[in-house]
Amino acid sequence: RAIGDFDRKRAPGAKQFMTGILMDVTEQKNDEFRKNDFIAMVSHELKTPLTSMKAFVQLAQSRLTGGRDVTAALAIEKAVHQVVKMSNMINGFLNLSRLESGKIQLNIEPFNLAKLIENVEKDTRATIVSHTLLFAPVEQAVIHADEDKINHVIHNLISNAVKYSPQGSSIMVACSKDETEVCISVSDSGIGIDQHELLKVFERYYRVEGSKLATVSGFGIGLYICKEIISRHGGRIWAESEPGKGSKFSFAIPMSST
Ligand code: ADP
């Protein structure tokens, strides 16, 4: 009988027994620490060569773009794209290990939310050409939070919306606020997520399985990092979705995080 499975129909005064399984999780925890340490070490080692590789391919790109060798220009453009993708993955692992070792501190300062969204709009319009980005008007508001980290969360949600929705579809970024908190949401019309996985996607290393997802690269750490950042601000993050129709990821943080 499983723990917690009580027999409510037992006769009054009868003895009750409860059984359960005790499991030593020390080894499991050690394995996890070793795995995380290993990932952190590998990511750290890969970062340096990757950073110089990125600089070299970008230099080559600046020389080849607009030149006569169209094939070489195209090849180098693809190389830059892949190197940037790889460094984003490595940065994800480094952020994860910094976060878990308590090395990431929030830097809370007042900033203008409308200005932040304006910058996100500028950045994403310059880099995302595969989708139509729509930004709802944002009210002026000064909030007290870690601007860089909130910026990271919004970029992550937008980048997921791009990854998990068809080319050419629209992605909508919207903000709302009341006296106590601001809420930011990113909606897409992509593959969506089943109801029973809406909470799991915020777990570390969790990825939804499925044939449509097999070709999309990732390690399932982006949303976990977003959740950690938002909860450290005293906020909350959640997802709503209809499979096949799209998803909406939202987070709310207090106007003034401490
Ligand atoms: P990654 O995208 O690198 O796998 P994330 O932590 O960002 O890691 O996301 C975890 C999982 O949640 C993804 O693998 C995917 O299955 C699902 N997911 C995240 N964002 C979306 C989205 N906008 N639409 C559909 N599924 C999503």
UniProtKB/TrEMBL annotation:
Keyword Membrane recorded: yes
Keyword field contains Membrane: yes
Alphabetical GO biological process terms: cellular response to phosphate starvation
Residue intervals of the Histidine kinase domain: 41-257
Gene Ontology cellular-component annotations: plasma membrane
Entry GO MF terms: phosphoprotein phosphatase activity; phosphorelay sensor kinase activity
UniProt keyword list: Coiled coil, Kinase, Membrane, Phosphoprotein, Transferase, Two-component regulatory system
Name of this protein: histidine kinase
The species this protein was found in: Pedobacter suwonensis
